[in-house]
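Z., the sequence and structure:
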Amino acid sequence: MSYASQTSVSVARSKAELERLLTRYGADQFAYLTDTTGAMVAFRMKKRHVRFLMPMPPRDDFVLTPGGRARKWAEDIDKAWEQAQRSRWRGLVLIVKAKLEAVETGISSFEREFLSDIVLPDGRTVHDLLAPQLEDAYSSAEMPAGIRLALPERT
C-alpha cells in the first residue's frame, strides 16, 4: 500500500499546502502545471530554480481493482484514479517538507537535497544531464570526462 493511499485531502489542498510550505522556507517564486498525464511543480529558492515532474497514472490503470476484478461503473474508475492523484500529491508534500526541514535544521544542504531537480540554464535538470552519464559510467566502469573534471582530486 502506498503512502496516503486512503487520504481524503484534496489535490487543491495539497497544492496550497505545498505553496505555503515553500513560501515559509524562503521560496520567492512558485508555479505548477497539470494535465491528465502528470504535474510539474517549480519554485525558486536560494537563487536556484527547482522543478519536480510528477507523472500520474493513466485513468485506464483503474479499470481493474487491485484484485483484478473489473470495475463496472465509470464513477468507480474515476474515484480510484482521483484517489491515486491525491496520494501522489500528498507524497510530494511529504518529500518536499522533509527536504526543507533537513536543510533548515542543518542536517543537509539545499544543493544536496534538491540537486537532481535544480534547473540548469539550458532548461534541463541536473538529473537530466547526469543520469545518462551515470548509466554509461556503470556499464563501462569508466568515469565520463565531464564528471571526472568536476570531481576534486583524491588525496
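Residues 11-119 form one domain. The chain has two domains: 11-119, 121-155.

Let me know what you think.
H.
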